[in-house]
Every structure is written in structure tokens, then in C-alpha cells.
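Worked example

This section walks through a single chain of length 222. The input is the sequence exactly as stored; nothing has been trimmed or padded.
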Amino acid sequence: MEQDKLWRYNLHYFDFLHEPVRSNGPELIESWIAANPQGREDAWEPFPVSLRLVNWIKFFLSPGAPSPLPPAWLESLALQAKWLTGNIEYHLLANHYFKNAKALVFAGTFFEGAQAQKWLEQGLRILHAELGEQILSDGGHFERSPMYHCMILEDCLDLWNLCQGSGLDALSPLRARLAAVLPGMLAFAGGLTHPDGGIALFNDAALGIEPGHAELAAYHER
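Given that input, the structure is written out below as C-alpha cells.
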């Protein structure tokens, strides 16, 4: 991917919503909704949509979000989830496919109603298949990249938290699957970590992109 597009992708992820010093999250969400109508270039590609859905939902449930949530925010979130269901990245699979499914599970859990139930069922169906496909018997992710392994491990921890906190019976099978794979995934991440805390650099891995083993292990313990 060319660098300018990758930069724009990162902007549309909204990872920055969770920075401790970030206080203008609501203004940034309002600005994004106004500037990015459905289908607009990079903003509406499935991978950024998937990450943004999860980041917005986390923010909407945080103390920093307004209460009640503005209707325009909820409408945009639902529109993005609905759009994602018809634009799953079957042509790429791997970590993109996993992110798509994770986002649908988050959206399906956040909203209520028949449409949300369909999002949840679609996401769970993909995740149950992909956990068996993508997490190997040694605990490692099948792309064999330390960075992608940490990415998917964080996704699994996010999903674990969702299962623990939501109380939905529909998430019980996913919770059981995650309980089975997380210890091995954490051990695998530790085996790919240097004494200085950095990951091994091979197979498209780079430092400072995904959380390292220590941060992920601490997340698991919370």
C-alpha cells in the first residue's frame, strides 16, 4: 500500500480516540460524519470501517462520551455496520477478515433489534471459523508475522472483554473458544519478544505499530 493511503487509513481508524490527553473526541466524530458521506474513498473501505466501528463503540461506552449519545452518531455507526455486512473482505481474508468479523460482533452487541442480531450472527459465524483457521496449534497466528500475531491477540482480548462484560448468552461459545486459545497466543507472543520488549522483526513486522507482549499480558490480567 502506498504511504499516503496508509496514512489516510490510520486517520480513519480513530485509534487516537483513546489517547489519555485526547479531549476533542466528540468534535472529531462530528467532523468525520460531516466530511465523509457513505462510500467516500478510503474512509469507507472495509478495513478502516472495521477498526473505526470498534473504536467508536469503545468511546461511546466510555466516560468521555456525551450522554445521551447524539442521534447522528448512532445513525452513522449503524450505517457503517450495515455497509460492512455487504463489503466483507473475502478477497483478502486473514487479519482483514478477522477485523471485519470483530467489528460486526461489536456492532451487533452494541445495538438491539433484528438487524443487529444479523450483524452479531454473521460476525460470530466468521470468528468461530477463523479462530480454528488462523490460530495454529502452537498458539501462533497463521500469517507468521510477530506484528500481525500481536494485532490478532489484541483483537481476541477485546472480544474476551466484550464477552465478559456484555452478559449475552449468544457470546458464550465465543468466550469458551477464546479461553482455549488465549494462553497459547500470549505464550507465543512472549517467545517472539526480545529482552528489550520489542518484537522480532520479520514477515512485515515493525516496532511501535501494535502493543507488545508485556502490554498484552497486562491487558489480559485486567
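What to look for: The chain has a mean pLDDT of 96.
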